[in-house]
Each structure stands twice: as structure tokens, then as C-alpha cells.
């Protein structure tokens, strides 16, 4: 009798679990995330768990990739950070500020998490743009470039990423005012985050490490602001700060157009699943200059394959813009 009771309980649990999965798979859910007025926050979202965290965007200036075999450094371009390469290490004491406004700033490649603004002049091989890997016993990436960076508080600093020491996993930084005053030399190690983060963020304003990213396995989408190339006329584009959606490094995405999003399937896509982070991106909406409202792209949906091979469909239904930073969308577990 006791054995039969246990069997009944286990069977009930399994049946309930299967029923729950079927209900989730068959149900389209409506979700709204709030980025706040002027979209001041970044929102990390999980298809299975909802909003994972909401982080004030202006808390950090630069972000360093955590895995030891990488050397990506990104800037917080959505919070107004700008980066300018001004020369090699001999330029530290001789930065020419004349005509500085005419220099071209460098930005992150938002399709590739490991191609940050500091990596834009990478020459391939073991050169990472800001420095070059040395096959010595310390396995160090030695910095070889001086930058001028505009921070989240609007101030300008000259910055030298001196090195990333491999055997201690330590970044060494040096920055100061353009005239050399207020110099800061510091270091920190991302080693303690090796199992939990893709990136660790840093504020030059507060001189502190910032844990902006939640644990890397807990989120799928990042609702944020970044610099993108947008149409500005016939065959004309310009760099502009947009609100967009980026996907985690461990997921892939495909876009479907021309099909009612409530009925779309990833087999309707012309392309295959891509690891590029900005497949969803920003252009699921556009601003109607005549009526001064945002218009959502018609018959457009996206399918996101997570690391566990589950696939979710997502499409957008409302966008509040900068007034309240709301983004409303529908999701459905399809596989």
C-alpha cells in the first residue's frame, strides 16, 4: 500500500510537470519591461524567469571581458561615453588637443560582444587593438595605445590600459586629466567572476568595480541603449544612439519577416540562427516624423534559441519611447 501511494505521488508530479510544460509551450505571454524615463536603466531579461535585474546605466564607463583567453574592452556608449585613439605610449605626455573635436571616435561592435571600442584597431593574430599578447611566462597582454575618453559625468581623461597580466589575471590601468593632473594608477582582477560573468564593469568616475551584469547563465536579452548606424536619407546613414535589444553570448537568433508574428515559425526565416548579438537590435520600430509617434515594424518576429536548446518566439506590440521607457512584447515557447 505504501509503495502504491509513492507511485501515485510520483506519477501525479510527473503528470503535473508535463502538463505545466505543455501549457507554457501552448501559451503566448504578454510582457512589459520598464527602462524608466529617458531609458536610464538597462534591463536584463530571461524568457523563463522574467526580469532578472534592472541596472542604472550611468554607473560604469568601461567593461572588461572576464574569460582569461579574451581581451575585449567595451565602452558605455549608451550613457554618453566616447573613445578616441590618440597615439602610442609615447603620446602620454604630449596629447595634442587642437582639432580634437574633429577626431573620429570609436565604438563597440554590437554584433560581437568581444569586439569592443578598444578592440576596433585590432590587426589580427594576438593584437587586440589596445595591446598585444606576449608569449612570456606571465602571458601578458601589453598595452600599446593611449586614448582620450569622455566619461559618464562628461569629463575627459587620458587613459592607458597598461596590461592584462595572465598569470594573476590582473588589469592595470592609468588615467589622468588631459594636462596630467589627478593621475590614478590602479589594478583589479576579474578572476573571482570567471564562473559567473561575461564582463566586469568599471567606473573611472567612482574608481570602483561595478557588477552591472547579472550571472551570465541567468539572462537571455539585454534592453539597453547603444550607438548604431541608422538611415538618414537615400543611401545615407549616420551614427545615432538607439534603444535596442542585444542577446546573451550563449544564445542565437533568427528574424522572420512577411509573416503574421502570431503565426510565424522559425522555418519561415530566410536566414539561419545567428550568434550575432544585435539580430533583434533596434529597427523593430521607427519614429514617424509626421505624427511624432513610434511605429512598430509589421509582420516581424524573432526566434531565440537558448543554451538549453529551447526556442522562444518574440515580437513587439508597444513601445513607450523615452517618456517612460516601456517595451511590451509577446513571447511563446515553441520548442
Describe what this molecule looks like in 3D.
The protein folds into two domains: about 25-55 and about 215-335, no CATH class; about 60-205, no CATH class. The protein is built from one helix and 22 strands. The chain has one helix at about 1-25, and strands at about 30-35, 40-45, 50-55, 60-65, 75, 80-85, 130-135, 140-145, 145-150, 155-165, 170-175, 185-190, 200-205, 210, 220-235, 235-245, 250-255, 285-290, 295, 300-305, 310-320, 325-335. A hairpin with a 4-residue loop joins strand 18 (about 285-290) and strand 19. It is globular. Mean pLDDT is about 90; it is low at about 1-25.
Question: How is this fold's topology laid out?
Answer:
Layout: H1 2-26, E1 29-34, E2 41-46, E3 50-56, E4 62-65, E5 73-75, E6 82-87, E7 131-133, E8 141-143, E9 146-150, E10 156-165, E11 170-177, E12 184-188, E13 199-203, E14 208-210, E15 221-233, E16 236-247, E17 252-257, E18 285-288, E19 293-296, E20 300-305, E21 311-319, E22 326-333
Antiparallel strand pairs: 1-22, 2-3, 2-15, 4-5, 4-13, 6-9, 7-8, 8-10, 9-10, 10-11, 11-12, 13-14, 15-16, 17-20, 18-19, 20-21, 21-22
